[in-house]
Design brief:
This protein has about 300 residues and is mostly helical. It folds into two domains: about 140 residues, Cytochrome c-like domain (Cytochrome Bc1 Complex, Chain D, domain 2); about 140 residues, Cytochrome Bc1 Complex, Chain D, domain 2. The N and C termini lie far apart (about 60 Å).
């Protein structure tokens, strides 16, 4: 019986590879940033994609593979050429290193798992994936985005409490992140923050401020912003990774790049504050006490 199963699985894999033969590449390609991909690299990338990626992302890269049904969030439609988690300002083209990080680490809270690929395998499948969106990638005139540079942390480990407090103020008053995510401060705290930053107390409170609000996106459906004490943040786990995401934004969604809008020390402060919220995930008693305090 086991032998028969192995034979069937082998035939399925062979059929999948055979079905892609007509798509085998006969010429080399040049992608954005002058990245040169040989036909051998592209054909190898096709094989890697067929083995590891096709079940979710589909034969044509549209995110409609046989395993995609029921997945939330759905697999990325690679034909759109829109990428959420590059280390560049959202809307700009990510670098190969950005794709490699996603392949290596996966995306937390999703079906996108970490993949144990060699550097060559990762390089080749990334080049193949670019062929799903030729209008975005093909041509030596296409430009890659400017990489987000991680600046020196102005708070470091000795000023974490100050960073969290400052981040809480910026999150709720300067950036007003709660308009998409949710508020994590009481009315009294919000009023005090507004008095400190804007010179007057806050007396009018949005009745929806403690709720997560679905947002439009370019990915085929609405996106649900993270509830930081409950959800997995897909592309960031550390303060530094949160800092990068705040600078970059999330491509194709309403999460903007805060680079140039907030001061750099404010972005660091919000990163520490968001990390403090994320640290409540899984600590049920501590989280309940925190949420109840806000309600009351």
């Amino acid at each position: 019986m086991l032998k028969n199963v192995k034979i069937i699985l082998g035939l399925v894999a062979l059929m999948a590879l055979t079905s892609c033969k007509d798509s085998h590449f006969k010429e080399d390609k040049v992608f954005a940033g002058g990245v040169y991909a040989t036909k051998e690299s592209l054909n190898h990338g096709l094989s890697i994609y067929t083995e590891y990626c096709m079940a979710c992302h589909g034969v044509t890269g549209e995110g409609n593979g046989v395993a995609s049904k029921g997945l939330y969030p759905p697999p990325r439609n690679l034909t759109k050429g829109i990428y959420k988690f590059g280390n560049v300002v959202s809307g700009e083209l990510p670098h190969d290193e950005d794709f490699k990080q996603i392949l290596k680490k996966g995306l937390h809270g999703t079906a996108m798992l970490p993949w144990d690929l060699s550097d060559q395998q990762a390089h080749d499948v990334i080049q193949y994936i670019k062929t799903f969106a030729p209008q975005t990638w093909e041509g030596k005139d296409k430009k890659l985005g400017t990489k987000i540079v991680v600046t020196k942390d102005p708070y470091a480990e000795v000023h974490v409490d100050s960073a969290i407090q400052r981040g809480k103020e910026v999150y709720h008053t300067v950036a007003q992140c709660w308009t998409c995510h949710r508020a994590y401060a009481t009315h009294a705290e919000l009023s005090a923050f507004n008095q400190k930053i804007n010179g007057e107390p806050l007396t009018d409170f949005d009745p929806e401020m403690y709720k997560i609000k679905a947002q439009p996106s370019e990915h085929g459906g609405p996106t649900i912003p993270s509830e930081f004490t409950w959800d997995s943040v897909r592309s960031a786990q550390t303060v530094e990774e949160i800092y990068v995401r705040l600078n970059a934004g999330v491509g194709g969604t309403s999460m903007p790049s805060w680079k140039g809008t907030l001061q750099d020390d404010e972005i660091w402060a919000v990163s520490y504050y968001v990390k403090s919220l994320m640290d409540l995930k899984g600590k049920h008693a501590e989280r309940k006490k925190f949420v109840d305090a806000i309600k009351n």
